[in-house]
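Exercise (ungraded).
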Amino acid sequence: MAAAAQVVHRQGAERTTIADIARAADVPVGNVYYYFKTKDELVKAALAEHAHQLELLTGELDRLGDPRERLKRLVETWVSQRDVAVRYGCPTGTLASELDKRDEGGLDEEAGRVIRLLVDWVAGQFAQLGQPDPEGLALTLVGAYQGMSLLANALRDPTVMTRQGERLLGWLGSLPDPLATDGPPAGDSPPGEGR
Amino acid sequence: MAAAAQVVHRQGAERTTIADIARAADVPVGNVYYYFKTKDELVKAALAEHAHQLELLTGELDRLGDPRERLKRLVETWVSQRDVAVRYGCPTGTLASELDKRDEGGLDEEAGRVIRLLVDWVAGQFAQLGQPDPEGLALTLVGAYQGMSLLANALRDPTVMTRQGERLLGWLGSLPDPLATDGPPAGDSPPGEGR
DNA sequence: GTCTATAATTTGATAGAC
DNA sequence: GTCTATCAAATTATAGAC
């Protein structure tokens, strides 16, 4: 699964052959088919791998006390991974973009679900910050990330990531803090998913 | 070329076969090879077609007197084409994303050039507005477009385009006007939600 | 479970009649 | 210039020995 995720990210789903993944995992092709009946199942496994990495990241960020700090750290993580973004784009975004051009197999919806995972988590942070329209703000932040990744990749320019990352950090810093003065402190929104 | 541009946009470059394009153009496959020696040349033609459409659009917008108005119309054009973005994403952006995963043929740089065409034109408008760092603002605006297109596509939600488009229009409207005789423009603020 | 060999299909590209 | 027929290579998937 790790080999599938990496090779598919670098070459794209369509260009990647089973032999490519088998070689990366250092196993014969026949062995791959023992665990994954079709190529689509391998792509689905790559998506699941990316979803897993995302959960590891948000799980780590959740240990920070301040939602604003979590979002800032998220942006900093994106910027710190700029070299891979410049070369291959966002793993989930580029894969979603490719899979969305299919109309068979339903792999496109699978990709959408992984993206929604991130959008929902970000929206949760904005909600905890007491912001109106947290979903809209989440779409803005995640959209900015997808956009700067695509541009950095297409223009082969890592400074796109650093410059736009700075801008996003400034924006997050300018958001009003509900904990600052009056108003209900914590417990503003339920800790679980509200969807 | 028009058939190539449309089919490649809908199916992606890798998934599109010469037969697909030939069928869309209503000619036999052998005929296609008379004009385009390889499949890569067909993809390059599709890119050129998108670049041509972009030049038609900016040429039209250039006839407007106010640079700010040009940018607003650009955003409105993007939003008006939301249905195609929801289904297939931005033609140039998705193609660039796909081609950037290749390391042969140099088609990736070709895609980057088309994106740069748009970024440079937008930067020119910001420069005419007297904005500092017009290139950075252009990357922000074009990045926002690429990001909202990708999210609208992945989430199959046209309201992403309308909502984020509204936000961009508000941001453009808040920019200081250099033609107004009074005070120096204030520092730029990132495209956050108006408060 | 692992691996080699191979079947079955698709597809980029060409030959050659018209 | 247009079109049909076809080749050669690549690739998904399977069969079957170990």
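Further reading is listed at the end of the chapter. For now, observe: Chain A touches chain B through 52 residues (CB under 8 Å). DSSP finds ten helices and no strands in chain A.
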